[in-house]
Design a protein that fits this description.
Helix content: 25-40%
Shape: globular
Number of strands: 13
Oligomer: single chain
CATH superfamily: Aldolase class I
CATH architecture: Alpha-Beta Barrel
Number of domains: 1
């Protein structure tokens, strides 16, 4: 049945099939059918002071607006991350902007932070039943000048902290012009300093400490990664997600979509993402926990990430291609 549904969805336009699948999942959840084909695996661990029921999470991007949290959480994930959310709603880039490279088990997207804005997400999060670990991924609007980007991230943090187990700042998407410049040392330090101050203010006033996580790109040089990691340590960031999508096209040279602009995810990203993960963990020396994302397509890839130093793993493309089986396989993983 799962194979049949997947084959039908893969015959459709990728963006259209994305929302058809999510709405079908929502319907199944509301009808109480989800439990018939899913199972919750208890494999607990503590990261960033948070108690995760198992180590596999859903990466940001699948549920951009927090419209499907309860239905997705019922699939057995140990944590869910929604977003990326920007202060103002924005349409994103023109369509087509999502391409499925089936033979290579990859996806190219240039969505451009299409979302309904933080206010819509807050309204949705007020209504959810889910009480597990929820990450909220925030970014800046496309029309916000880079030197004003701090204002957008602070807006997102202030609007959404009360619903979040942790907040991820997305400074690594390749689909918002100039965004990756925020990974540079002085700009990153300035941004993190402001967010850490806001984090402490909220912790003092509201008695809730919301861990701050940074999502980084896989296209960093060794020198850039060293500089970035140094800033993360100096600013006492609570976690890192390694990595976002890549601008490289290694492994998809034969695809008809090879020249499409956007970030590449899926199996071809696995090796590069794990390389960055390993280098980062070597620098951080367990002082900051790392969440692995990028090319987690099977149990072996998940174990590879944990052995490289990750504490948790996230899936997106792997979930699209492998489905529910991948969640249960990864949920049982333990570090050696």
């Amino acid at each position: 049945m799962t194979t049949l549904v997947k084959n039908l969805l893969f015959q459709m336009d990728p963006e259209r099939s994305h929302y058809i699948a999510l709405n079908a999942l929502q319907w199944a959840y509301q009808c109480g059918l989800t439990s018939l084909y899913t199972k919750q695996i208890h494999n607990p661990l503590t990261v960033m002071g948070l108690s995760f029921p198992n180590p596999v999470g859903l990466a940001a991007g699948l549920d951009k607006n927090a419209d499907y949290v309860d239905a997705l959480a019922a699939l057995g994930f140990g944590f869910i991350e929604v977003g990326t959310l920007t202060p103002k709603p924005q349409e994103g880039n023109p369509q087509p902007r999502l391409f499925r490279l089936t033979e290579q088990e990859a996806i190219i997207n240039r969505m451009g932070f299409n979302n309904k804005g933080v206010e819509h997400a807050a309204r949705q999060l007020e209504k959810i039943r889910y009480r597990g670990i929820l990450g909220i991924n925030i970014g800046k609007n496309k029309d916000t000048p880079l030197d004003k980007s701090i204002d957008d991230y602070l807006f997102g943090f202030r609007a959404l902290w009360k619903y979040a187990s942790y907040i991820t700042i997305n400074i690594s998407s390749p689909n918002t012009p100039g965004l990756r410049d925020l990974q540079q040392g002085h700009m990153l330090a300035h941004l993190l300093r402001a967010l850490k101050q806001e984090q402490q203010t909220i912790a003092t006033k509201e008695k809730k400490y919301v861990p701050l996580v940074v999502k980084i790109a896989p296209d960093l040089s060794s020198e850039d990664l060293q500089e970035l990691a140094t800033v993360l340590l100096q600013q006492q960031v609570d976690g890192v997600i390694a990595t976002n999508t890549t601008l490289q096209r290694e492994g998809v040279e034969q695809s008809r979509y090879v020249h499409e602009a956007g970030g590449l995810s899926g199996k071809p990203l696995q090796q590069r993402s794990t390389q960055i993960l390993s280098q980062l963990c070597s620098i951080l020396q367990d002082k900051i926990p790392v969440i692995a994302s990028g090319g987690v397509m099977d149990k072996q890839a998940g174990m590879e990430k944990l052995n490289a130093g990750a504490r948790l793993v996230q899936v997106y493309s792997g979930f699209i291609y492998r489905g529910l089986k991948l969640i249960s396989e990864l949920a049982e993983l333990r570090t050696s």
